[in-house]
Amino acid sequence: MVGGTGPGSPFWDYYMHVHDQMYEAWEQPGDVNDRKLVAVVLLKIARDGSITKVELESSSGNQSMDKSALAAARKVLRLDPPPEALVKGSFAPIAVYFQLKKG
Fold first, then answer.
1. Mean pLDDT, the chain, as a whole number?
2. Distance between CA atoms of 27 and 34, rounded to whole angstroms?
3. Are 44 and 93 in contact (CB under 8 A)?
4. Percentage of the chain modeled with pLDDT above 90
5. What residues are paired with 51 via a beta bridge?
6. Total structural domains in the chain?
7. 3-class state of residue 93 by DSSP
8. Running DSSP on this structure, what letter comes out for residue 61?
9. pTM score, whole prediction
10. Which domain holds residue 60?
11. Taking a C-beta distance cutoff of 8 angstroms, is the pair 100, 39 a contact?
12. What is the b/e burial string over 51-90, where b = at least 16 CB atoms within 10 angstroms of the residue's CB?
């Protein structure tokens, strides 16, 4: 789950917003069928909601999976502005866990 937190988090709605936007942009790789693979992408989200950096935080071990997750994150240029309490310095670091829904 985004940020590794559950529904009890005060930021749950924002984490779900980020997750939903990323998954809408994600074209799951057709050559990957292992639903256990997880690619973790770290986003740095500016106060205005623009995504200033995208990086692979943790590889799934499958190049197609990793590339597709990074491509999805790079397609989304802007999100809703993050809650102020999530902002560390000039951005909010949010990890998105990409895991296949098919297979």
1. 91
2. 15
3. yes
4. 82
5. 45
6. 1
7. strand
8. S
9. 0.88
10. 2-29+37-99
11. no
12. beebeeeeebebeebbebbbebbeebeebebbeeebeeee
Which value, in Å, is the radius of gyration of the alpha carbons in the chain? 13
Q: What pLDDT, on a 0 to 100 scale, did the predictor assign at position 55?
A: 98
pLDDT in tens, 6-48: 566 789 999 999 999 999 999 999 888 898 999 999 999 999 9
DSSP state of 82: P
Torsion angles phi and psi, residue 81, rounded to 5: -55, 140
Q: What is the sign of the dihedral through the CA atoms of 101, 35, 95 and 72?
A: negative
Q: What pLDDT, on a 0 to 100 scale, did the predictor assign at position 10?
A: 85
Cross-strand pairs, 46:
91
CATH number at residue 16: 3.30.1150.10
